[in-house]
Specification:
CATH architecture of the largest domain: 3-Layer(aba) Sandwich
Structural class: alpha/beta
Number of helices: 9
CATH superfamily of the largest domain: Type I PLP-dependent aspartate aminotransferase-like (Major domain)
Distance between the termini: 30 Å
């Protein structure tokens, strides 16, 4: 999503784009390693669709090159890698509570985690106009406080996060069982931890035909994302000549199917029947 690169640009830094792993859609450690140069200071590893990136390899690369690791956990709250929760591997973990997320507020909301006390102190200052003390501002910050109404909603829903994530996994498993014979690529799990299944994203050369067939049946589906970041108008001029084959191929073939904790079996079966007919 654009916000990941946008955050880099807001600091005055230049985002450098690496390719993805074609199976998981997450950062390819080899591509990341090849992009490092003398100006590199940090990496943002996005845990796309609810599955953690290859955090062991990425962490090792960061240690070797003395880089900060920022985990973009916007879609992966509740996921883990080798038994360690998303947001706990890196120097920072960034979470979204946008209403459509696995843990959604009633409006825009988010959270940042860090394992370093100095970073914790800095974040608390930045979110409150650069202030530790009322009407005394030591640096320029933002108005980024989570308001109490959003916090109240999140505290109630947090108690059921594991239940809801388990329900998403059950939906994903039914999709797999009903679509295993369909001519499309199902989501790949890396086997290193629990997938939070924020999205259930398939791949097909007939992506557009499948989406049109679903729409005719009144079934929503989404393309995340139709244009890679290095091809976005805001970044394309500075990335002319850059080719990221796996990311570009994914943008042409991915389709995210309906998924939420309350999706009933009969609804899943109806979706899958439509896909089985239109994917051939």
């Amino acid at each position: 999503f654009f916000a990941t690169a946008e955050a880099v640009s807001y600091t005055g830094a230049t985002p450098v784009f690496a390719d993805i792993d074609a199976g998981t859609f997450n950062l390819d450690p080899g591509s990341f390693r090849n992009k490092i140069n003398s100006k590199t200071r940090a990496v943002i590893a996005v845990h796309l669709f609810g599955q953690c990136a290859a955090l062991d390899e990425i962490s090792d690369i960061c240690t070797t090159h003395e880089l900060l690791l920022v985990e973009d956990c916007a879609q992966a709250l509740g996921a883990d890698y080798d038994g360690v929760r998303a947001g706990s591997w890196g120097d920072f973990g960034c979470f979204s509570f946008y209403p459509t997320k696995n843990l959604g507020a009633a409006g825009d909301a988010g959270l940042v985690t860090t394992k370093h006390k100095k970073h914790d102190e800095t974040l608390r200052v930045l979110r409150h106009h650069g202030s530790r003390q009322t009407y005394l501002h030591e640096r320029v910050g933002w108005n980024s406080r989570l308001d109490e109404l959003q916090a109240a909603v999140l505290r109630v829903k947090l108690r059921r996060l594991e239940e809801f994530n388990d329900a998403r996994r059950r939906v994903a498993q039914r999709y797999r069982s009903k679509l295993q014979s369909a001519p499309l690529a199902l989501p790949s799990e890396n086997g290193r931890g629990r997938h939070a299944y924020h999205q259930f994203t398939v791949r097909s050369e007939r992506r557009d035909a499948i989406r049109e067939a679903l729409a005719r049946e009144g079934i929503a589906s989404s393309i995340f994302y139709p244009l890679p970041l290095h091809r976005q108008p805001a970044y394309e001029p500075s990335n002319r000549g850059l080719t990221l084959p796996a990311a570009e191929a994914a943008a042409k073939s991915v389709l995210s199917l309906p998924i939420h904790p309350l999706l009933e079996d009969r609804a899943i079966d109806r979706i899958c029947a439509c896909i089985q007919q239109s994917a051939r």
